Amino acid sequence: MQNDFSNAQRAEVLTQALPYIRKYNGKTIVIKYGGNAMIDEQLKLQVMQDIVLLWLVGVKVVLVHGGGPEISELMQRLGKKPEFVDGLRVTDKETADIVQMVLAGKINKTLVNLLECCGGKAMGISGMDGRLIEAEPKDERLGYVGNIRKVNISAVTDLLEKGYIPVVSTVGCDRSGNTYNINGDTAAAHIAGALQARCMIMMTDIAGILTNKDDPSTLIPEVTVAEAEKLFEQGIISGGMIPKVDCCIEAINRGVKNVTIMDGRIPHAILMELLTDEGAGTMVRGN
Questions:
Q1: Which of 1, 18, 116, 156 has the most other CB atoms within 10 Å of its CB?
Q2: Residue 213 annotated in active site
Q3: φ and ψ at 146, to 5 degrees?
């Protein structure tokens, strides 16, 4: 297949990407990566390669990750049954320890290592480092699931200034030293807002906002916040897409120019979104 793609065609692709490279050079983008989009190892490697490519052409990338499936897997191996209320994990003290181990430990360091192996310069931090994510209890039924009370962004900006790709695991803390499980999409929206990021990308396991949830060809490529509110009312944005679009709107209200929801299982979806005319997924922007 490689032989079918000539050097001239490769040069043409790079030339077409030039205006987009110029557009994002020196700008900060936040990529939320997690859940089911992280399961395939080959795809995970491609995502890390894409991030390093963006970093090498001067884009300041912040990678925020979750890891719900891996948390559930470790809980089951430890004989602890995962429980959910309204889609949020019930998190007692023991589960909070497991969340911290999986997110701030295994997943965070695996992603940092992959970025370094791809030629990047990455540093992993959790929301507890530098009190990046200060949290408070969200709902007593959920235990140590946190609402974000405050984001202290200096740890991330320090890393960006020193040329690193910050890799952030979404574990928070309170002033008493308790650990909180923080929704990854919400954390990414708050971090992107605090950075006044040029854009945010949410990598998930769905193509974006669909007018017919069972038909990928009904993808809506772009919506304003006002149009999204109408789609809520019409029931087109429903189920698990509701909190994702809410997070898009949260980020925009905090100063992010636009947010794209995309299928992280598509190879090189990030580059398609940022460096081509076509884009990928659904872009939500201000009115």
A1: 156
A2: no
A3: -110, 145
Return mean pLDDT, the chain.
Answer: 90
Q: Domain tally for the chain?
A: 1
Catalytic-role residue among 172, 184, 244, 281: 244
Summarised one tens digit per residue, pLDDT across range 189-199 is 999 999 999 99
Known catalytic membership, residue 26:
no
Q: Is 27 a catalytic residue?
A: no
The domain of 30 spans 24-285
State the catalytic residue, choosing from 34, 68, 124, 184. 68
Assess contact for 136 and 147: CB atoms under 8 A: yes
Does residue 32 have an active-site annotation? yes
CATH number for the domain harbouring residue 88: 3.40.1160.10
CA 250 – CA 192 distance, rounded (Å):
10
Q: Which candidate in 35, 124, 172, 281 is catalytic? A: 35
Q: Which residue among the candidates 120, 124, 129, 185 is catalytic per the annotation?
A: 185
- With a CB cutoff of 8 Å and minimum separation 6, the contacts of 146 are 133, 135, 136, 137, 138, 172, 174, 180, 181, 182
Q: What is the pTM of this model?
A: 0.92
* Residue 100 structure tokens: 């911290």
State the angle between helix axes of 108-117 and 41-56 in degrees (0 to 180), rounded to the nearest 10. Answer: 60
